[in-house]
Structures are given as C-alpha cells and as structure tokens.
Specification:
Layout (H helix, E strand, L loop, with lengths): L1 H26 L13 E5 L2 E4 H10 L9 H20 L6 H25 L5 H11 L6 E10 L2 H12 L4 H8 L10 E5 L6 H8 L11 E3 L2 E12 L5 H27 L3 E3 L5 E3 L6
Antiparallel strand pairs: 1-2, 3-4, 3-6, 5-6, 7-8
Helix pairs in contact: 1-2, 1-4, 1-9, 5-9
Length: 288
C-alpha cells in the first residue's frame, strides 16, 4: 500500500493532463457538411461550416496553452486542423490499423479521465472534512524560528580568537562590525528571524542546539567560511490559516479518495502479471 500511495499522484497528474489535451482532439474534426449549422458561422471550409460554438470549444480545449489566444489566430489554427483532418480521411488514415489502435487507446484514456473526475465529483469534500484535515496537519506545520547573529571569517584560528574575546566579555555586535566578512557585519552580524531550513546544514544544526543568549563555543564551518553564532531569541511560528490552505487540502483529499477508489477496484479484481520467464506473479498495488 505504501508504494501505491507514493505513485498515485503521478498517475493522477498523467490522467488529468490527458483529459485536458484529449478534449481538444475529441471535440474537433467534426464540422458538419450537411444540415443547417448550429449557431453563428465564423468560417467555411470546402463547403463545411465552422461555428462560433466550435471555435469556443477549441479555445476552451487549449485554455492552458502558453500560446496567445488571439481570436483570428485561434480561428486559423482551427481551420488548419480541419484541413489536416479532411486530408487524413481522404487518405484513409481512419481505417489504418495503427491509427485505429491509437484511437482506441485515446478512447480508453478519455474514459479513465472521465471516471476519475466522476469519482471526485460524486464525493466532494465538505468544509467540515477539510477543517478536520487541517486540525490534523496544523501542528506539523509549526516550525521553530530563531533570531540570530553571526561573525563570519575566513580562518578557523581567527574564529577561535573571537570566541576567546567573547569569553572575556567582548561585545558580539562590536566584534562582528570589526571582523565579519559577511554583509551583516555592518549591522552587528544581525540575521533577523530565520528559518533553519533556509540555512546551510552545519549552521542550522549548530543554531538549533544552542540556548537562548548563548554563542557557539566552537567555530562552525560552512562553505562560506567559519562562523561564530549567537542565538538571541527563538519562537514557534504560527501555522498557516485554514483559508490559505483550503485549496491544497481539497486537492489532497481528492487525490486520497481517488487512490482509495482505485485501491478498491484492484482489491476486487483478479490481477496477475507474468514475469520475464513467464512466471505468473500477483500484481503489486500500484497505479502507473
């Protein structure tokens, strides 16, 4: 089950991506040659009408495209698509076995995408359920933040000498202003409030082990040089508000429910996969 849960988001992303791209393929190539056109005609092609409705469908199908959606450019794209579609029919590609196989695969993907959407639409998450998800997660979203200062120098020996001066009562900010090679030196080494995840590991590890008001008793080495660190204050951050996370929570809940739906289908199905040597094996619970 663990493997299944990890890989399901990739499966979902593939399905949702296909549903957007496939919509454009499936709704076009169908202008009517006979009968009255339905709606305003925006172009004609070899006697066939292209309506405003068809143009709107084409626009919606490629709404996520990075290309500009100028009205005239869109219409020309649609005309070009219809021209190629007509030529494909005239050449008999709609009867080509390879093309028919691709069309069947396309049909399968459209149905899979539609079923996944239906599974989500049939069981939408309520605000109450999303708040319950939020209450379970919010404590894990709290992080420790630290208000710290540092003195950065190039040599370990110089850092050790600065620590010795601090031991003798020297002022940290004055030493930082005089000796630090970092950009914060002019501000007494003040880094402000920082998230340890934003710092390089040796620095953040040393910082999190310190007590408020103390400075590092040993120089801390990073790729930037040697640091003497002072921890001024620490605090716990506030978790993001429910409203700020509501969209992500809804998406996460939907993905989990689709995962559960797929797991239920697999649980009821009789699945076996033949290995390389023809050995029959039980299929793993994964969605690819």
């Amino acid at each position: 089950m663990e493997s299944y849960n990890r890989r399901t988001p990739l499966f979902l992303a593939t399905v949702f991506g296909l549903s957007l791209g496939i919509a454009g393929c499936s709704e076009q190539g169908s202008t009517e040659a006979a009968g009255e056109p339905q709606g305003k005609v925006v172009a004609t092609l070899n006697g066939k009408s292209i309506t405003e409705s068809e143009l709107n469908k084409y626009r919606d199908a490629r709404a996520d495209s990075s290309q500009p959606q100028d009205e005239e450019a869109l219409l020309n794209e649609l005309v070009t698509q219809e021209l190629v579609y007509e030529d494909a029919l005239q050449r008999g590609l709609d009867k080509d076995p390879k093309v028919l196989q691709e069309l069947e695969q396309l049909r399968t993907r459209i149905l899979v995408s539609a079923m996944v959407r239906k599974a989500m639409e049939d069981n939408p998450a309520t605000d109450e359920q999303l708040r319950a998800e939020y209450d379970q997660l919010k404590d894990s979203l709290v992080i420790s933040e630290y208000k710290a200062s540092h003195i950065l120098v190039e040599e370990k020996e110089q850092a050790e000498q600065l620590i010795a001066q601090l031991d003798d009562g020297a002022d940290f900010a004055e030493l930082a202003g005089e000796h630090s090679t970092g950009p914060t030196g002019k501000n007494g080494g003040d880094l402000g409030w920082i998230n340890p995840q934003q710092m390089v590991p040796p620095f953040s590890q040393a910082l999190q082990q310190m007590e408020t008001g103390s400075y590092s008793k040993e120089p801390v080495n990073t790729r930037f040089g040697w640091h003497v660190i002072k921890l001024d204050e620490s605090r716990q951050s506030e978790p993001p508000a429910f409203e700020d996370l509501k969209g992500q929570l809804a998406q996460m809940t939907q993905q989990r429910r689709v995962s559960e739906y797929i797991a239920a289908l697999r649980e009821k199905a009789d699945i076996s996969i033949n290995g390389e040597a023809g050995e029959e094996k039980t299929a793993p619970l994964t969605a690819e």
